[in-house]
From TrEMBL:
Identification of the protein by name: Protein translocase subunit SecE
Presence of the UniProt keyword Transmembrane in the record: yes
Family: Belongs to the SecE/SEC61-gamma family.
Species of provenance: Salinirubrum litoreum
Subunit (UniProt): Component of the Sec protein translocase complex. Heterotrimer consisting of SecY (alpha), SecG (beta) and SecE (gamma) subunits. The heterotrimers can form oligomers, although 1 heterotrimer is thought to be able to translocate proteins. Interacts with the ribosome. May interact with SecDF, and other proteins may be involved.
Xref: SUPFAM superfamilies: Preprotein translocase SecE subunit
Compartments it resides in: Cell membrane; Endomembrane system
Gene Ontology MF, one: protein transmembrane transporter activity
Membrane-spanning residues: 31-53
GO cellular component: endomembrane system; plasma membrane
Amino acid sequence: MDVKYDLTSYVRVLKLASTPSWEEFSQIAKIAGAGIFLVGLMGFLIFAVMAILPLGGV
């Protein structure tokens, strides 16, 4: 494990990184929010179907 090499590669990546503009940030936030909403909606629909349908058995 070469710590000096690892640190220089981390510093190189941080130098390339930049702060996103407001438009870029808002677009990413909208897409992430839509994804979270869709996953929650799918979970709720699965819960609702499982609560309505009889499980069968005894």
